[in-house]
Specification:
There is one protein chain. By secondary structure, this protein is an alpha/beta fold. It is built from seven helices and five strands, in the order βαβαβαβαβααα. The longest helix has 13 residues.
Length: 161
C-alpha cells in the first residue's frame, strides 16, 4: 500500500475541521470540498486546499459521488475520508473509492453493508456473541404481533423504523 500524503475530506463543518487539523498534525495534506453555499465556511480555510463540489443542495454537491471522485483525482489525493453522515454510510461510495485506486478511511464496504441495516447488524451481533437487548427477530408490521412482542419483551419498548 502506498503512503497517504493527501486526503480529500468528503464532508463539511466541524467534522471536516477536526479531520483537517488531525491530518495536519500527522503531516498529511488535506483537501476540502464545498458547495456554493459553503464557499466561505470555516472548513474551507482549515484545509490545505479546497475545491467547489456543486450547488447548495447536498444531492448535487456533498452526495455527488462522481464529482467527489473527480476532485480527488484532480487534487492528487491518495485517500478519501468521509467524516460522518453524507458518504460515511454508503457502501457503494466506499467501493467506488477503492476501485478508483484510492484508500478509503473508514469501514470496509462489506462492514458498511452488514451494519447499515438494523436487522442485519443485530443478527451479526448475536452470531458474534455480543449481548443485545430483547427484541424481535425480524420486522413487525401487524399491530397484534407488535402487541404480543411488546408484552413478551416488557414495557417500555422502543420501536425502530
Amino acid at each position: 500500500m502506498k503512503p497517504i500524503r493527501k486526503v480529500l475530506v468528503a464532508n463539511r463543518g466541524e467534522i471536516a475541521i477536526r479531520i483537517c487539523r488531525t491530518l495536519r498534525e500527522m503531516g498529511i495534506r488535506s483537501v476540502a470540498i464545498y458547495s456554493d453555499a459553503d464557499q466561505d465556511s470555516p472548513h474551507v480555510f482549515a484545509a490545505d486546499e479546497a475545491h467547489p463540489v456543486g450547488p447548495a443542495p447536498a444531492a448535487q454537491s456533498y452526495l455527488n459521488k462522481a464529482r467527489i471522485l473527480e476532485i480527488a483525482a484532480a487534487a492528487g489525493a491518495d485517500a478519501i475520508h468521509p467524516g460522518y453522515g453524507f458518504m460515511s454510510e454508503s457502501a457503494a461510495f466506499a467501493a467506488r473509492v477503492l476501485s478508483a485506486g484510492l484508500a478509503w478511511i473508514g469501514p470496509s464496504p462489506e462492514a458498511i453493508r452488514a451494519l447499515g441495516d438494523k436487522l442485519s447488524a443485530r443478527a451479526l451481533a448475536i452470531r458474534a456473541g455480543v449481548p443485545v437487548l430483547s427484541g424481535t427477530e425480524g420486522p413487525v408490521s401487524d399491530p397484534a404481533e407488535l402487541r404480543r412482542a411488546a408484552e413478551k419483551i416488557g414495557y417500555p419498548v422502543v420501536l425502530k423504523a
